[in-house]
Amino acid sequence: MKYLGWWPQPEESVPFGPALEHFVAWMRDERGLTPCTIEQWRYRALKFLCWCSDTDRNLATLQPQDIDAYFVNYGAKRWSRISAGGIAKMLRVFLRHAASTGACSPILAGSIPGNRRYALESLPYALSWEDVRRVVATASSDSEGDIRDRAILLLLAVLGLRRGEVASPRLDQIDLVAGLLPIWRLKRRQPQVHPLVPSVAEALRRYIHEVRPNVSHAEVFIRTQAPRFPIQATALYNIVTRRLRALGYRPLTLALMLCGTRAQRSCSPTG
């Protein structure tokens, strides 16, 4: 009913909306960040602004001790140390930009310290290659969902792609004959070509030629339920989590590992 426009949706109330949308426009138009990064940083910035609104704090009068309270009262039970470091980095960028427009005090960004990071600290969070094979083996049936998910899991595990890099390729970018997959790299301003090993190439070929729905969208991976839109990068978390949970793994850490952290590269026998 939502898809057909028969279910009225209330407009989302965004606290300090102009500051947030100005930040999004800056990331998109001036920094040239990827849509995936923009979406994630907008989501994190919105969470912070909602917390400010819920606790009767005003962005214009925000003080460093208010930032401390956000991490202590809101984030302590929600984030790992590594996640807290990433959110601190995002907040520094957001508050620095907000200060440049006069939306908040210029001292806020500099009051957020970074947390200590240790070399190779992420390696213990990686799955062993045997465990990765068990996860991939859960997608072995002839159903559309399993055939699609098998191709997705192999791209994550064997090629070490991030979730946004798995969701973004289009049909005209994949060369199954030559076994090549170009992935656009924003910093290099050009594609990086990945060789498709036989197992990955076969999984993609089977999905594209046998079960992929005949839709007008050019993206490779399509939702298995209506509306038949291309999958979003965030949907890969749910795909991996569901299969990890079925095998008895703790899904939160391991799904994040498979869906976009550098630790995933230690899973592959070539990584």
TrEMBL record:
The keyword DNA-binding applies. Residues 14-99 form the Core-binding (CB) domain. InterPro entries: CB (IPR044068), DNA_brk_join_enz (IPR011010), Integrase-like_cat_sf (IPR013762), Integrase_catalytic (IPR002104), Integrase_recombinase_N (IPR010998). Keywords: DNA integration, DNA recombination, DNA-binding. One of its GO terms (biological process) is DNA recombination. PROSITE patterns: CB (PS51900), TYR_RECOMBINASE (PS51898). This is Tyrosine-type recombinase/integrase. It comes from Candidatus Accumulibacter affinis. Gene3D superfamilies: 1.10.150.130, Intergrase catalytic core. One of its GO terms (molecular function) is DNA binding. It comes from the Bacteria. Residues 122-271 form the Tyr recombinase domain. The keyword Cell inner membrane does not apply.
